Amino acid sequence: MKVALRICGALAMLAAAACNSSSELRPLTVVGWGGSSQDAHRQAYWNGFTKSTGIALREDSWRGGVGVIRTKVVGGDASWDIVQVETEDLILGCEEGLFQRLDWAALGGRKAFLPSAVHDCGVGAMLWSYVIGYDGDRIKGPGPQSWADFWDVKRFPGKRGMRKTPKYSLEFALMADGVPADQVYPTLRTPAGVDRAFRKLDQIKPHVIWWSSISQVPDLLGSREVVMSVTSPGRLIVANRTEGRNFKLDWHGNIYAVDYWVILANSPRRAEAAQLLRYMTRPENQMRLASYIPTGLTNVEANRLADPALKKDTPSDPANMTDALELDANFWVEYGDQLTQRFNAWVAR
Amino acid sequence: MTSPGQPLVEFRGVEKRYSADARAAVTRLDLTVERGEFLTLLGPSGSGKTTTLMMLAGFEAPSAGDILLEGKSLADRPPYKRNMGVVFQNYALFPHMSVAENLAFPLGVRKIKGAAAKEKVDAALALVRLDGLGDRRPDALSGGQRQRVALARALIFEPDLVLMDEPLGALDRQLREHLQAEIKRIQRALSLTIVYVTHDQGEALTLSDRIAVFADGSIQQIGSPEQIYDYPSNAFVAGFVGENNMLSATVVTRQDRQCTIRLPGGQILHAVATGDIAAGDDVVAAIRPEHVQTGDNQPSRCNTLDARIGELVYHGDHSRIRAELDGGGSLVIRTPSRDGIAVSDRLPIGWCSDRCFAFPVPDITGVSTGNRI
Amino acid sequence: MPGSHARSAAPRRWWAFALVAPLLLFLLASFVLPVLLMLSRAVTDRELHTVWPESAAALRQWDGRGLPPDALAHEVARDMITARQAGTLNRVANRLNYDMVGSRSLLYGTADMLLSGVPGDSVAALARIDPRWGQPGIWAAMRHADGPFTSHYLLAALDRRLDNDDRVISVAPEQAVFANIYLRTFKISALVALFCVILGYPIAYLLASLPDRKANPLLILVLLPFWTSALVRTAAWAVLLQTNGVVNHALQNIGLIDAPVQLIYNRLGVYIAMTHVLLPFLILPLYGVMKGISPVAMRAASSLGATPLRAFLKVYLPQTLPGVAAGAIIVFTLALGYYVTPALVGGGADQMISASIAFYTNQSLNWGMAAALSLLLLVPLLLMLFAGRTLARTVPA
User: Fold this and answer.
1) Residues of A in contact with C343 (CB under 8 A)
2) Domain match, A232 and A169 both
3) CB pair distance less than 8 Å for C348 and A342
4) Within a 13 Å sphere around the CA of B201, how many CA atoms are in the beta-carbon half?
5) φ, ψ (nearest 5 deg) of residue C218
6) pLDDT(B297) > 70
7) Residues of chain C found within 8 Å of residue A210, distances taken between Cβ atoms
8) Which residue of A has its CA nearest to C175?
9) Could you tell me if residue A3 is inside a domain?
10) Model confidence at C397, in pLDDT bands (50, 70, 90)?
11) Is residue A17 part of a domain?
């Protein structure tokens, strides 16, 4: 009996040691969205961070969805420390206590960032947006300059690419119907406003090819499957650079949003995580990001310092901000289930 | 249509090559199958016997020559139009059908259904003594039972000809002997024409009306079991059918069917001369173990030799002796008694010259020359 | 002596059980238990129960007609303040929002008003903060969520809901979507399984009849789709099938069609892409079964007088049915869970149920809904598998 107890004890100690050592050994892990955006972050931040601090970084990538993080946090150490999340993920995860509250003083104060990049649980990583993209070789002369133009299949015959979600589609529909940007969400919060948006979508539905991955957009435009598409600017700009395309963007009525860096609540390496966060948000580091990927910067000073030529195609450029609409993530947290259900029923009809 | 005396099947100059440059699996095959006979194709594996059967069944096409059934060429007739019952080595029962369904399969093809079919199925089951097992699945039967079903299935549609490809090869010895008797009984009862392939010479001798011995793609000898056993036409047949002592020797004289030969030890023997041999040729002399007599008091002995007993094995009803000849070589003797015989004794042995055959040295592969006890 | 036999067999059974017990426990702990825990969310309602225990108890006492007594309203207001301060209001707010959209902002807004000192000790007082408190809707939603069990998620997964008087009614027609998606999911999966059988059977037959030396390289070709990512595969299909794609050009060149036809971004594209990627799951089991069928059986059938067609239909085909059934069930089951491929190559009407499950699991964190949808996918699937097993047993291997 005693022997058995002793064996059990030894096993328990071994198990504990194994658990301890695994979290001791695990390098600081940062999780991005993969692809060109992750490449840009690696070149702009992560390589330099490891070089200057000696802290080794492990990378992972994901495709979003706060449910993934909930699973990981509830299940114990999830092997992730810092994650790039979208606004709705930030709101839901922060409410649930999945993320750590940030020490804003250490980050240089809330004032140092764009207002929309500041949150109790997250600091803006980059600004991105959805705009109208089209092939300049196919639409010669003046292109679409509003969502009303996007809807105008007589002036611009051909199919449209749109993302197969109610998010963005409903907002664009209302703007196409003449609702000013600042009235889009108040309108959508009323049942009549939602009906109006769907009625507007009815008009363009026969001409839409619905995409579900942004990587499809350059192909859809390039193969002339669609004449114009809802797109994020980066993909088309990269295609112009690397494939010699002549894709053009129209920023009127674009919807922009912020991606945030968060630190998971159960990260065993919070000090180093905070250190990386500070590194990635310092102006002199952040302005480097713009040279790797056309994206909006969240640090006010970095925006001032950044090369104006690089800023032209980013959502944070003032010219692109005039009639832009900031995504209302709170609206989508509250209405997302209902509107997704309705959208799925509508799109199948 | 059928003229009297016309053979049921006739192979005319049939040859089979699996590819143009390959060795022929069957060459220069001329063979007839008579109505009502039990013909066995006997030979070692690779001798062409199964290929011959498969060509007859229609699963292989001859590369040259023709096969005729009742005087008509089979060249353009697919297997399913040949009306031959085939029994395969591994039974080839349909595993998803019951025994009765297996038996009814060829009837269904021939539009025999309902009560008529059931009557035939029951009769076939009775014929192979499997009454009442019609509802079983093949996998619930023993090997012997499966073979009976396969046999019944090949007979139920009253084929012109039954082909059997090593049908008992997978069974143990006792069951094999039992089923041999069954097959023979059924063949006699139904006057079946059977072409039977086997590598088991004992089986061939027991069952057949005629045996065709195959080696290297051609027939070495064809005849009744007695002819094959008692008068082998060459060294291969002598060695393959039954047991034979094969002794190397040199021809001293030849006169028609008689010859004298000299063993390496100098002993001179009388033998029956077979084939193209002349004085001075190297030959193989064959003598069956049961034809060698021992002791001094044997009558009608034409050849006598002195030997020494090298080994002695008791088999109950007989004993086997390995007798070592002076000057090298040995032979096996089968004798009813072993009274007063012991290893290392010297023993006079002998045999009648009409039991000893001298053959040209064979160029056929697979002929055993060692004499095992 | 059956008794003594049983006695001697029992310890042996225990031994056998003890030997597999570790694996069994592992499976139980790592697979069965989590699945059951997840599925249990489809019928349990824990948010109000744990975050607002007093209010939940009071709600259960209430008869549920019209508006609640002021005491209950007062209880709710107190709980709201406590939860807002403790940072747990989100759980109740999100749960109520599932039942009544808008509840989330209603609760947060009201809680902040209450925290700033506005009174909320009666229904009327709350209604002064937001008129919705003066309507039955929010109170019915709370009563529906008072736990510990709920029908909300399963009803919602069937396009039904409870009205303010607890009657089961259909959701508004423009919200009714899941029944259609289920039917579509099962239909697409069944047809993909059928296409896989039609296309895969001859391929498996060819592979099984070839010597291994030639069959093995072909098998690797069959397995190729496994080793390419869904995105790459989809991009390749897009190149082939799009309006200006290879297939359309070829069809136009040989004069079969005058104008390009839509081959992708609709149901046809879904069938093509899913059949392609799932084909190996049919071919491999079928190939295994076909390899085990003795070729002599076909010769036997032929010798018994059966034409090649009859021999195939009566002798070969029946023996391959267990393989066909196994492959088709695997393909069907896997197809039920597909959503990335249909999303990428399908049109608006081609979304499958797993996309909804993923949405509720990952995007909106409505795991009750995800569990209910999974349950309604799992139950018919298990029934069909059971039926398939029974069917397979009638066809012996």
Assistant:
1) 164, 212-213
2) yes
3) no
4) 17
5) -65, -35
6) no
7) 265, 347-348
8) A342
9) no
10) very low
11) no
State the complex-level ipTM.
Answer: 0.91
* pLDDT tens sequence across B71-119: 999 999 999 999 999 999 989 999 999 999 999 999 999 999 999 999 9
Is residue B365 a part of any domain in this protein?
no
Residue B54 pLDDT > 90: yes
- Same-domain status, A245 and A168: yes
- Determine, yes or no, domain membership for B191: yes
Closest Cα in chain C, distance from residue A99 (Å): 13
- Please tell me if residue C366 touches chain A, with a CB cutoff of 8 Å: yes
Query: Which pTM does this prediction carry?
Result: 0.86
User: Which CATH number covers residue B48?
Assistant: 3.40.50.300
Position C392 confidence tier, pLDDT thresholds 50, 70, 90: low
| Chain B residue with minimum CA distance to C315 | B94
Half-sphere exposure of B45 (CA within 13 A, CB side): 2
pLDDT at residue A14 above 50?
no
| Mean local confidence (pLDDT), B4-20 | 89
Instruction: Determine, for residues C395 and B96 on separate chains, whether the beta-carbon distance falls below 8 Å.
Output: yes
Chains C and A touch each other (3 or more Cβ pairs < 8 A): yes
What is the tens place of the pLDDT at every residue in C51-98?
999 999 999 999 988 899 999 999 999 999 999 999 999 999 999 999
Give residue A264's domain range: 26-127+258-316
User: Same domain for A165 and A199?
Assistant: yes
* DSSP symbols for C127-159: HHH-GGGGSHHHHHHHHHTSSSB-SHHHHHHTT
Residue to mutate among C248, C249, C265, with most A CBs inside 10 A, is C265
Q: What is the CATH number of the domain that holds A132?
A: 3.40.190.10
For residue A200, is it within any domain? yes
Min Cα–Cα distance to chain B from C382, Å = 27
Judge whether residue A94 has pLDDT over 90: yes
Residue A23 has pLDDT above 50, yes or no: no
pLDDT over threshold 60, residue C1? no
Q: Which residues of C touch A225 (CB under 8 A)?
A: 238, 242-244, 265
Query: Where is average pLDDT lowest: A21-25, B19-23, B328-332, C282-286?
Result: A21-25
Of C303, C318, C395, the CB nearest to B86: C303
Quickly state the pLDDT bin for C2 (edges 50, 70, 90): very low
Q: Is the pLDDT of residue A189 over 50?
A: yes
Q: Do A67 and C361 touch (CB under 8 A)?
A: yes
> Can chain B be said to touch chain C, i.e. do they have 3 or more Cβ pairs within 8 angstroms?
yes
Spell out which residues of chain C touch residue B81, defining contact as CB-CB under 8 Å.
305
Residues of A in contact with C245 (CB under 8 A): 223
Q: Is C105 on the interface with A (CB under 8 A)?
A: yes
- Asked if B94 and C307 come within 8 Å (Cβ–Cβ), the reply is no
Look at residue C250 and tell me whether its pLDDT is greater than 50. Answer: yes
Disruptive mutation site among C302, C303, C321 for chain B (greatest number of B CBs within 10 Å): C303
Tell me if B266 is assigned to some domain.
yes
Q: Which domain holds residue B297?
A: 243-360
pLDDT at C7: 54
**Which has the higher per-residue pLDDT, A6 or A324?**
A324
**Residues of chain A contacting residue C369, judged by C-beta atoms under 8 Å apart:** 337
